[in-house]
Automatic annotation (TrEMBL):
Pfam assignment, any one: ADH_N
NCBIfam families: quinone_pig3 (TIGR02824)
Keyword Transmembrane helix: no
GO molecular function, one term: NADPH binding
Species whose genome carries this gene: Paracoccus thiocyanatus
Gene3D superfamilies noted in UniProt: Medium-chain alcohol dehydrogenases, catalytic domain, NAD(P)-binding Rossmann-like Domain
InterPro entries registered for this protein in UniProt: ADH-like_C, ADH-like_N, ER, GroES-like_sf, NAD(P)-bd_dom_sf, Quinone_OxRdtase_PIG3
Record CDD domains: p53_inducible_oxidoreductase
UniProt keyword annotations, A-Z: NADP, Oxidoreductase
Record's protein name: NAD(P)H quinone oxidoreductase, PIG3 family protein
Length: 350
């Protein structure tokens, strides 16, 4: 076997695979050796990794497909130094080995895990602090559907934006995995919610979820509609769009309003009225989970385990899963994601 650290140092995993008991100890990965569209994805047999200090080895049963995977595949997501270049940052599976200095996670546990990378694989290493044991009645699909999405939604809505009961929140991309999760979280704390989508089929599903204000941005000006709903403004905006909407967002916020920038569905620069930011004491915060240090990410996972894992285990909140596809259909999964045909999470199962 090769260690996880060795796997990171040898990005393509092309070293001769060692033998264990006379058998090749290899695994299948899905990666993008060259940037491109979904068809750039390739499958490859590589040596199976071995956990280092503080790490656990997970037999992956399912992996969550995220927009950053598609961005990385296309060459639009620079990786932090030393990160495993294989796609995939969240998995569900079973711990099959542990390295030294691992506490609280044991062989045989079924877990959800955040990864630096390497999730599109039959086995993956994770920092034990970034792993959450899941209820026994969960399958790997559910485990893979929650941790990245719930961590991102919690950190942006509550740690950065401090959304409180009764406050007004606009959540863009309501049919996306993070967007739909953020809506369910905002409902759980009693916020007043508006959301946007560009498709009527998704709008119907969002209304069925109980969202009172669903705005189709292809059929009208969402900002004008929001001014009619809340003439004196709103408190929090969960923004997946970026520069195209920033000036309008600042106009919509009231005193001490907060914007969490979570994505960049639009590109380029933004111009906005700085005086409004100053006089209303508006806060603008950016967030992406992957570049967090290991210690910071451990704190993020700890908050997820404390606040939302009990809610998930009790069935009081649940992820929206759009499709579960075989691992070999990774290209199709990326096509669905890039066409925005999904409502909620796309999962690849082993």
């Amino acid at each position: 076997m090769v260690s996880c650290a060795q796997s990171r140092a040898r990005p393509r995993g092309l070293a001769t695979a060692p033998r264990e008991g006379g058998r090749m100890t290899t695994m299948q990965i899905c990666h993008a050796p060259r940037p491109g569209g979904p068809e750039a994805l390739r499958f490859l047999a590589v040596p199976r990794p071995e956990p280092g200090p503080g790490q656990v080895l997970i037999r992956v049963g399912a992996v969550g497909v995220n927009r950053l995977d598609a961005m990385q595949r296309a060459g639009n997501y620079p990786l932090p130094p030393g990160v495993n270049p294989v796609l995939g940052v969240e998995v569900g599976g079973e711990v099959v080995a542990t390295g030294p200095e691992v506490h609280g996670i044991a062989v045989g546990m079924r877990v959800a895990a955040l990864l630096e990378g390497g999730g599109y694989a039959e086995f993956a290493c994770a920092d034990h602090r970034h792993v959450a044991p899941v209820p026994r009645d969960w399958d790997d699909i559910r485990a893979a559907a929650v941790i990245e999405t719930f961590c991102t939604a919690h950190e942006t809505l509550f740690e950065l934006s401090r959304l409180a009961p009764g406050e007004r929140v606009l959540i863009h991309a309501g049919g996306s995995a993070v967007g739909s999760t953020a809506i369910r979280m905002a409902q759980a704390v009693g916020a007043e919610i508006a959301t946007t989508t560009g498709r009527e089929d998704k709008a119907d599903r969002l209304r069925a979820m109980g969202v009172p204000h669903v705005l189709n941005y292809r059929q009208g000006d969402f900002a004008a509609a929001l001014r009619e709903i809340w003439p004196d403004g709103l408190d929090v905006i969960e923004d997946f769009v970026g520069p195209a909407n920033l000036a309008r967002h600042i106009d919509l916020l009231r005193w001490r309003g907060r914007i969490a920038l979570v994505g960049l569905l639009s590109q380029g620069m933004a111009e906005f009225d700085v005086a409004k930011v100053l006089t209303r004491m508006i806060q603008l915060r950016g967030f992406t989970l992957r570049p967090h240090s290991a210690t910071e990410k451990a704190a993020v996972v700890a908050r997820f385990r404390r606040r939302w894992l009990p809610e998930l285990a009790a069935g009081r909140i649940a992820p929206d899963i759009h499709a579960v596809l075989p691992f070999g259909d990774a290209v199709q999964a990326h096509r669905i994601l890039e066409a925005a045909d999904n409502f909620g999470k796309i999962i690849l199962r082993m």
